[in-house]
Amino acid sequence: MALISRGFRGRRQSAETAGRLPPGQYATRDFPVLSAGPTPRTPLAAWDFTVRAADGRSARWTWDEFTALPHQTTTKDIHCVTKWSKFDTVWEGISIDTLLSEAAAKGVTSSPHVIARCDGGYTTNLPLADVTGGKAWIAFMYDGKPLPPEHGGPARLLVPHLYFWKSAKWVRELLLMERDMPGFWESLGYHNYGDPWREQRYAGDE
Ligand SMILES: Nc1nc2c(c(=O)[nH]1)N[C@H]1C(S)=C(S)[C@@H](COP(=O)(O)O)O[C@H]1N2
Ligand SMILES: [Mo]
Fold first, then answer.
1. Gyration radius of the chain over CA positions
2. Which of ligand 1's atoms lies nearest the C-alpha of 163?
3. How many CA atoms, within 13 angstroms, populate the side-chain half-sphere of residue 67?
4. Whose C-alpha lies nearest to ligand 1, atom 24?
5. Which atom of ligand 1 is the closest one to the Cα of 170?
6. Which of 79, 139, 149, 173 lies in disulfide reach of 93, CB 3.0 to 4.6 Å?
């Protein structure tokens, strides 16, 4: 009996998740922590967020100003290059579209490339097109609670359609650039773009 119900459960799970697991990935219910260095702990009173244009003009928000911007809840599957995927993660955050339009109103003009800069020095680069059009957020809540520090709190970039190293934890600035520039892992051999569906793990993967 136990064997039969386990079998049924297994089949039901694979039906639910069919088509949602990129090549080479496995699904997990855990939420592993992957950080290249120590977890920074910036007090909210000292925290701010900046969108900076290529010409140096910038828009800046304090924590209170930032979290008062219109925000959304979004449920997404995430995919780490170390091969775990996690389905249906629930985030609350501010769409990059919202940030860029608020910044544009302050004279911050757009550019085709973005690099995210974080407390602790981590960076990651993205085409502007991959953080606009409802595809990316600065998330400050996870699963209905403030984002824990080990997962990037107080706020992290969330770009769920690319490998999770692009979702920069402890993010403080989006720098808009005319030319692309590799970030931390991208300059250490990870793929520049990182599409999990094309299995773009390392530089040289097509
Ligand atoms: N600032 C910063 N952001 C980061 C990292 C990091 O080391 N520092 N690691 C990246 C990697 S490789 C992954 S897989 C995810 C892991 O996020 P998690 O620890 O919340 O699972 O964060 C990404 N963002
Ligand atoms: Mo990762």
1. 18
2. 14
3. 15
4. 168
5. 1
6. 139
Name the residue of 34, 123, 201 to mutate for ligand 1: max ligand atoms within 8 A of Cβ: 34
Residues 9-50 pLDDT 10s? 444 456 667 799 999 999 999 999 999 999 999 999 999 999
Instruction: Report H helices in the chain.
Output: 2-17, 63-67, 96-105
CB-based pocket (< 6 A), ligand 1? 31-36, 80, 118, 120, 122, 151-152, 164-165, 167-170
| H or E element, residue 84 | strand 84-95
> From ligand 2's centre to the CA of 79, what distance in Å?
8
Ligand 1 atom nearest to 120, measured from its CA: 1
Burial class (CB in 10 A: 0-12, 13-18, 19+), 29: exposed
* Alpha carbon nearest to ligand 1 atom 18, residue: 33
Domain boundaries, the chain: 47-180
What proportions of the chain, in percent to the nearest 5, are helix, strand and coil? 25, 30, 45
* 47-180 CATH choice from 3.20.20.210, 3.90.420.10, 3.30.2270.10, 3.40.50.300: 3.90.420.10
